[in-house]
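Lecture 7 notes: from sequence to structure.
We start with the chain below.
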Amino acid sequence: MGIISDREQKLKNIIKNGVDPYPARAQRDYLCQKATLDFDQIEKKEKEITLAGRLVLLRLHGKVCFANLEDGSGRFQLFLAQDDLGEEAYNFFKENIDLGDFLQVQGKVFLTKKGEKTLRLNSYRLLSKSLLPLPEKWHGLSDPEKRFRQRYLDLIANPEVRKIFTTRSKTIKLIREFLNQRNFMEVETPILQSLAGGATAKPFVTHHQALDRDLYLRVAPELYLKRLIIGNLERVYEVARCFRNEGIDRTHSPEFTQVEFYQAYADYQDLMQLTEELMVFLLKGLGLGMKIEFQGQKIDFTPPYPRWDFREALIEKAGIDIDQYPEREQLAAEAKKKGLALDKTWGRGRILDEIYKKFVLSQAKQPIFIINHPLELSPLAKKIKERPAYVERFQLLVNGLETCNAFSELNDPLDQAARFKEQKKLQDKGDEEAQAADEEFVTALKYGMPPTAGEGIGIDRLVNILTNTQNIREVILFPTLKAQPPRDKK
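Predicted structure tokens for the same chain:
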């Protein structure tokens, strides 16, 4: 009999014996971790305790057996004896209970001869019968595709994966705490939008049946959050799920999370300082030092972080002074000399971005702010007064990863309308990532928006750094994957 059919037969036996294999209620008064920490006190009082969790280890020795029970906090050893449980209950356990089953157990704690903290059972109760076996390699489910596709098995088999997602949850909680302490208000903005604006990215399109119109999954919450600044909500933020119809690689996912926040009466210099304070707050809150390991590099997050001007970075690393190539075709010719393959639909801004990614991004190991980006790359940012071809913008780079993007927000409605027109020209030439012209947003700007600075922080990349993981899929519970090939029918 195979493993699965054997378990199915055990399920039938359980039901035949009048036991509900999937009861609705369970009881427990201790988590495994708490029972471990309070062990001496529990033992001294000879107190009976109740645990509940998954059976993850089982060693049968005739009329006694040892087992390990695991819950969300940790593991605790169990001791079962026929003399304690009675012959019928003990034999039922041996004949019908498997690794992976969920149990509720009750008894008193004691120390084994080897000094192991253990619960001596006087009763047990089945909470859920497992019909499929746990991964064979209990200490390391290793196939990446299977890990991501069947994340529940990954979480069962690999404790370090659970730690990653605990860190992710704490990171988001700490960011909320940081912003709340500074009087930012958490808000929600639409995911379904009539125009895909707020970022340079290709959107996903969906169709609303009742309205009979196409809508877009948001690429960013930016334009709606700035509407709230216009509406006198001076500090707002959103932990936003965003969607971009782009390729999948180790730093990009079509579905990702970012936190965006906007502060009235501030500029990008203010947000650089705020970002440094946030990184210190996060590292301390997570119990990490200012120096952490990431992809073989010792990363020192001790502020202040250097500021590196975009133009100067390209001069130093690519040997291109972009001020010498104000026209698209001039810049394209120079980029080709440097070995870049260009698409004919790319405008000057996209070419600048590709030069930057190839020659600058990978060179930034320690935390550094890239500042003062070209106007073409930033259709929503305010111009630098003395350098109108550039804008007040920064990105925080950490070992080749862009972790945040921020700028002094453009609040001139006429300038914004003109920039949207330029984006429309790029769209007409086939650039699917150019931003749509949002006339409603321009109308909102005409009512007046105070000087404002805004920032977006990619949660997934940030957690990659904080957990020293290589791939964005490692920090997304259920990442988007290729469709599974159909199984051969036999």
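Points to note: The chain has two domains: 3-128, 156-306+366-475. The domain at 156-306+366-475 is CATH 3.30.930.10 (BirA Bifunctional Protein; domain 2).
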